[in-house]
Design a protein that fits this description.
By secondary structure, the chain is an alpha/beta fold. The chain folds into two domains: 32 residues; 239 residues, Alpha-Beta Barrel (TIM Barrel), CATH 3.20.20. The chain is built from ten helices and ten strands. Helix 4 packs parallel to helix 5.
Length: 275
């Protein structure tokens, strides 16, 4: 084998390996990586923190909306630090708190102090309508954002984004919306239209699928229901949403992992396939 032939062979192999490497990089790049996919703490209402974190790790999810049955509102700064360290050790970020219900001014005071001790930049709240002026003043003092959770046809309190905006339009812009897309669908509103219209005040999103676009609809594994998830993903990209989309899976409370994993997998697949 002469030197010229050997040199040509090595160059050819180098180019081939470079092509294979580039191709592998293309194949392993997932568009879903650009979406911050999280999970709502409510999914794990039947489990303790350690059990919940193990399930979240199995799905490869990095974001958790923390419910106060896992971290009580009266937790001390030391207890909160230990909780956050446990999440960090698991590779999970407790990116927000809630949803938290508030019916009195004392509730509001307690929640804002809780969020402050946690170091939260935002929490998800469900306040009584008449508390909004009091909350508006608290926002200015604490500089913490609040996202009001929508609940669809199940309650008269903040059923959809339009109702939230009707009550907060003139309040501090740090008061916004946690848009529950499943409840939006069950209420008969358009997820796509609401995402576009209220995008400036949407701070957080709960994503799921529903068996029917009416009150009797129930949460189901994503991709098996009536919701147009590809259109939702396209819209999220179009409006430049950079927050977290957390799966809220009310179904199978005692055994949620199979349905959650299927839903997360479907959502990732849609993100990867949708341009």
């Amino acid at each position: 084998m002469n030197r010229s032939y050997l040199t040509s062979l090595l160059i050819g192999l180098s180019l081939l390996l470079g092509t294979v490497t580039a191709s592998a990089q293309t194949v392993t790049h997932h568009r879903s990586e650009a979406m911050k996919i999280g999970v709502a703490g409510f999914n794990f209402r039947e489990f303790n923190v350690d059990q919940s974190l193990k399930m979240i790790q199995k799905m490869g999810v990095k974001y958790l909306s923390v419910k106060d049955f896992h971290l009580p509102q009266n937790s001390t700064s030391e207890q909160i630090a230990a909780f956050k360290q446990k999440l960090a050790d698991a590779g999970i970020e407790g990116y927000t708190l809630g949803p938290i219900y508030m019916n009195t001014e004392a509730d509001v005071d307690r929640v804002f102090e809780y969020a402050k001790r946690y170091g939260a930049q935002m929490f998800i709240g469900v306040p009584a309508y008449d508390l909004l002026p009091y909350i508006d003043a608290k926002i200015k003092t604490y500089n913490i954002r609040m996202a009001i959770h929508t609940h669809g046809p199940d309650t008269k309190l903040f059923p959809d984004a339009a109702d939230v905006m009707a009550h907060i339009a003139d309040l501090d812009p740090r008061i916004g919306i946690c848009l529950d897309l499943g409840h939006t669908t069950r209420f008969g509103a358009s997820c796509v239209n609401d995402l576009k219209r209220y995008r400036a005040r949407i701070f957080d999103i709960h994503i799921k699928d529903e068996t029917a676009a009416e009150k009797k609809g129930q949460t189901c594994e994503m991709g098996r229901g009536v919701m147009d998830i590809p259109s939702i993903v396209k819209t999220l990209r179009k409006i430049g949403y950079t927050g977290v989309c957390s799966l809220e899976f009310e179904k199978d409370g005692k055994d949620p992992l199979p349905g959650m994993a299927e839903s997360i997998g479907y959502l990732r697949g849609v993100c990867d396939a949708t341009k």
